[in-house]
Amino acid sequence: MELIRKIEAFVPWNDQEAQDKEELLRLLRSGGEFYSRENPTAHLTASAWVVSPDRQKVLMAYHNLYDSWAWLGGHADGERNLLLKAEQEVREETGLSDVHPVSDRIYSLEILTVNGHEKRGQYVSSHLHLNVTYLFEADPALPVRSKPDENSRVAWFPLWEAVERSTEPWFRERIYPKLNRKLSPFLSE
């Protein structure tokens, strides 16, 4: 399986990524179906950390469901190429016409908890997002727009302001700061 090979090749940046890498590999090797939301306990998601060419800004959307500024991405929903899925989600959620991956390598791995919630009038039980993150680049001068069924605003922020804009504690404390710190090797690319 291609995703297993990509995760095996991924070099964790911290303990969270190391632990999540091992658990992701264990789950994917178990033979369970994780590419679809048909698995109500855990399913794959693809996220994008979209930065400006100078790596000084990040693109965020105000996510309606979580009532917070957040990164871009979504459920795999059957798509096995998570890099392609992350790019599709960026284009759909922001209207960006020109966005491209900085690398085809996995940028970050996370297993994220999602509390039970209402979505389009239906209750969704608490579950896990088995998340694969890719690093993307786009020009902040390009026009962006919201996707009203998912987000109400889209905006570029200086890296650390993006962290502060999130109201989700785990993302503010652990995920977004990590993604910003991991940019160092990409500053000259």
UniProtKB/TrEMBL annotation:
<comment type="similarity">
    <text>Belongs to the Nudix hydrolase family.</text>
</comment>
<dbReference type="GO" id="GO:0016787">
    <property type="term" value="F:hydrolase activity"/>
</dbReference>
<dbReference type="Pfam" id="PF00293">
    <property type="entry name" value="NUDIX"/>
</dbReference>
<dbReference type="InterPro" id="IPR015797">
    <property type="entry name" value="NUDIX_hydrolase-like_dom_sf"/>
</dbReference>
<protein>
    <submittedName>
        <fullName>NUDIX hydrolase</fullName>
    </submittedName>
</protein>
<dbReference type="InterPro" id="IPR000086">
    <property type="entry name" value="NUDIX_hydrolase_dom"/>
</dbReference>
<feature type="domain" description="Nudix hydrolase">
    <location>
        <begin position="41"/>
        <end position="182"/>
    </location>
</feature>
<keyword id="KW-0378">Hydrolase</keyword>
